[in-house]
Amino acid sequence: MDLKSAALDIFSEAVRAADPFRGVQNAVRVEDCSIVVAGERYPSDRYTKVYVIGGGKASARMGEALETVLGDRITGGWINTKDGHGVSLDRITVHECGHPVPDERGIYGTRQILEILDKEADEHTLVICLLSGGGSALMPAPAEGITLGEKQEVTGLLLRAGASIGELNAVRKHLSRLKGGGMARLAFPARLHLLILSDVIGDPLDVIASGPGIGDTSTFGDCVGICTRLGIMNELPASVRTRFLNGVQGTIPETAKAGDPLLAPVVNTLIGNNRMSVEAARKRAESLGFNTLVLTTTLAGEASCAGTFYSSVASEIHTSGNPLQPPACIITGGETTVTVRGNGKGGRNQEMALTVARCLAGMDNFVFLSAGTDGTDGPTDAAGGMVDGSSIRRGDEKGLDVNAYLENNDSYNYLKAVDGLVMTGPTGTNVMDIQILLAGES
User: Fold this and answer.
1) What's the average model confidence in pLDDT over 139-165?
2) What does pTM read for this prediction?
3) How many Å apart are CA 283 and CA 290, to the nearest integer?
4) Which of 67, 120, 127 is CA-nearest to residue 94?
5) Is the pLDDT at 169 greater than 90, yes or no?
């Protein structure tokens, strides 16, 4: 196959490896009148009610798998997911909401989850929570004195300032009733078991979906530090600034911390991550005959800087055959950020791809793909971008200035004009991003 087809094939294999349906099926079974979740046994005579809750881009697909395994053993449940990611289930309500900025639908859905925890969860209840990327924005439960509009404003400020997902979630935890171990506190005395698909570098359980079922390592002091460093402290709504400062002074309680007795009956289980997807991509590339190297699964920082790094790798392969002789495949995984300075349209993967396109100009037999495993990249309908040595030439023929488009953060419209968008639609999973650089033989 040609290089573009090969890149898409390798990316598709990475997405398949992160299938949340398969992950849940591997983790849950019924055995001897008990539900077994990742080795934890929950006898049916002790746990007479089973509720399923959750949030995230992949959570509906996870719920579909859970219904397949448990069937009518599920008493009921509620899952919040992103628009376009829902499925129809028999025992669990799937509710679509706004992402990445939470909306009123998310507030309504989270109220239903809170109702289950408040009115249904007792010592005879097993609560299975399905979490995946996007869960933090999709389960908004503003803290006392904070409105949804104010949380939306803070989220927008953080995103525009280039906050990492860890920074974003640290702030969200301290503006929420559910995050930062809040779900665990609310579920007690029920047993709470979380099945988690990681979209965070390094898979820290306290960061994924803002850690609703685990002790929080961040503090109000961290929130103040993050907002100060990003230069947005004075732009925060007055109620948020007041809450952060009161938290630093200890006049309002912190999020749940390790050692909290209400966290004791909670189990957090990871069922999928970026590393699994990258490994599947590596195997597929090797099967297609490429000399393959995985550089990292922790790619982070500015998307344009990561693109410049990949440009250097492509140039090195082109001139010296290092670090691999063609046919070569270089793979990375992770999640970068974009500091928005223009008013264009795009996402981190598209910006990275367009940055690499400048280096590949005129270089035959090179293809670069960067895309989100969830099928969406920023506020666009594309998963990412794919470019080759002719991408800039095609742009020049249309009178497009690649530098101007990059300065305006308008990678989507440039790539659309040169047929460089990767369009997959929602994939039902989310384990961050995958980058693939292919170098063919001359």
Assistant:
1) 90
2) 0.83
3) 10
4) 67
5) no
> In the sheet where 366-372 sits, what is the strand order?
291-299, 328-334, 433-439, 366-372, 384-388, 421-422
The β-bridge partners of 77 are 52
Overall average pLDDT of the 401-406 stretch: 97
Cα distance between residue 14 and residue 274, in whole Å? 9
Look at the chain and count its residues.
442
Task: Name beta bridge partners: 93.
Answer: 78
Q: At 22, phi and psi to the nearest 5?
A: -65, -40
**Token pair for 436:** 């693939």
97 beta partners: 82
Alpha-carbon distance of 133 to 437, in angstroms, equals: 25
- In angstroms, how far is the first alpha carbon of the chain from the final one? 15
Hey, what amino acid is at 249?
Q
| 91 φ, ψ (degrees, to nearest 5) | -110, -15
**Residue 349, number of CB atoms within 10 A of its CB:** 33
Locate 28 and state its tokens: 């849950």
Percent of the chain with pLDDT over 70: 100
Question: Given the DSSP bridges, would you call strands 366-372 and 433-439 parallel, antiparallel or unpaired?
Answer: antiparallel
Q: In what order do the strands lie in the sheet with 191-197?
A: 93-97, 76-82, 49-55, 125-131, 191-197, 266-272
Using one digit for the tens of pLDDT, what is the confidence trace for 109-140?
999 999 999 999 999 999 999 999 889 889 99
Print burial letters for 5-25: b (CB count within 10 Å at least 16), e (below 16).
ebbbbbbebbbbbbbbbbbbb
Question: Both tokens of residue 360?
Answer: 């590949």
Q: Go through 173-203 and write b for each residue having 16 or more CB atoms within 10 A of its CB, e for each that does not.
A: bbbbbbbbbbbbbbbbebbbbbbbbbbbbeb
- CB neighbourhood size of 122 (10 A): 11
User: How far apart are alpha carbons 395 and 402 in whole angstroms?
Assistant: 7
Q: In sequence order, what are the beta bridge partners of 440?
A: none
Separation of alpha carbons 181 and 165, rounded Å: 17
d(C-alpha 88, C-alpha 63), whole Å: 10
Q: Are 136 and 210 in contact (CB under 8 A)?
A: yes
What is the distance between the alpha carbons of residues 283 and 141, in angstroms, rounded to a whole number?
42
Q: Do residues 21 and 406 make contact, with C-beta atoms less than 8 angstroms apart?
A: no
Q: How does residue 206 score in pLDDT terms, banded at 50, 70 and 90?
A: confident
